[in-house]
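Reply to dn_fold:

You asked what the input looked like. This is it:
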Amino acid sequence: MLNNKDVTQTGEIISYKDKLFIYLYDNEDKRATIVLDIETGYELFRTSEFMGYIRLQEDRIYALYGKTVSILNPESYQIRRIDLSEELAVLDESIEEFLGAESLGYTTIEFKLSPTIYEVRYPYLYFAQERGAQVGVLNLETEKLEWHATMDIDYPVNPVVMDIKACENRLYVHCADRTLHIFEME
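and this is what came back:
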């Protein structure tokens, strides 16, 4: 499944109870999340169905990839996959809007969730755009977009959003231009 010669670990290595959860990929773009027993080092579970930088939040392991949220139960290894393609289509941008050019036709830039810049406060997922200035809140129970905003940032570095944190009814967004945006959530 993975080429042993050129395997790269990416994202966090998560320690949960007596297990290590690791997301790996190789030079042939084969990917897997593996679970190892901490005491013995034996492999307990392996899947290629759980892709992305993994993060432990509230006794679940999350991974974001494209417009999909995957949630892994670390006890049973069951995976819940939430495809948000239709719900997040409203965040797609036309090239004309993005570049300010009108002669390029109707091509769109598809919105993608940042696989690394998000926070979960179940049932809410606070997210950033992978390469852009959009942030928002998804309700994981209803699978609906609750709120979103596009920040007015003219900064040629990707990612634009460096970090997000949710606290009470506010979303704090730290950007590459060294600004902190604070959004009031209702």
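The longest strand covers residues 7-16.
Hope that clears it up.
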